[in-house]
Amino acid sequence: MSSLSHPRRTRRQLSPADRPRPGVSLLLSSLPHLLPGRERHQSAGFGANLRRAAAAIGQQARADGSYLVPLRLFIGLGWLRTCVEKAIDPDWHNGSALSDFLQGQLVQGAVPFPFYEALSRALFLPHATGLSWMIVIGEFLAGMAIFTGCCTRAALLGGLFMNLNFLLAGVPNPSAFYIVIQVTLLLANTGAILGVDGIRNARPVRSSWNGRWRYWATALLALVTAAYAGSHATDTSPAGSVRDPAMILAVLATMILLWALLALLRQGLSHSS
Fold this sequence. Notes:
It is a single chain. It is built from 13 helices and no strands. Mean pLDDT is 79; it is low at 1-12, 16-31 and 204-209. By secondary structure, the protein is mostly helical. The longest helix has 28 residues, at 245-272. It folds into 2 domains: 35-205, no CATH class; 209-273. Helix 4 runs antiparallel to helix 8 and helix 12 (212-231) packs antiparallel against helix 13 (245-272).
């Protein structure tokens, strides 16, 4: 009997400072019981949703591409910044800024590809005002979507399309820099990591680039682009090649070609193992 009563005496001998204190989780879990009926159910539901959201955020933060989330935020802010820059410029409202830019590029011979030069003269210049507003709206939508991770794939493709047009118009900086980053974000599916896409889908993060045919199609398109752009390169020197839009496009296409070949190689090795 003495051995059974010993723990009881020991517990009575504990001082108030030595007694275990309830944890924060226990305190939070007890709060709903202090509320009346309807408020209690609402609070319990909010707490459950909060715990599920915290668990989902923790799971997404452990994904392989989580380290690229700051890069996604950077690109989103970059698009929003250039959108605001154009939106507060009156010359962009009437299309004169875009028209002057295109005419300057054409006069200087800065447009590297003949087909884009013809497209600028026949389509872009006559519709400079409408095109200016399309660019501003496109930059705003791309920036908001990429920053929040909402419809990220479509936003990144839209951003790549705009940067590709800037590069074709003879503006390699910062278009080439943005293209590399956005291709990386697109392949890593970063919109599903700590973004609206991940919360909306609520399923494990995985790349959407499955299937060998996608890799082969990407490799073929990159090979054709690299060959075409390389044939129009005018400066291959170490100092001048970084300012030649055709050379930069050829290098970017070669990088994508190498990525596609590496993806095919990895997929083949995984199937063989």
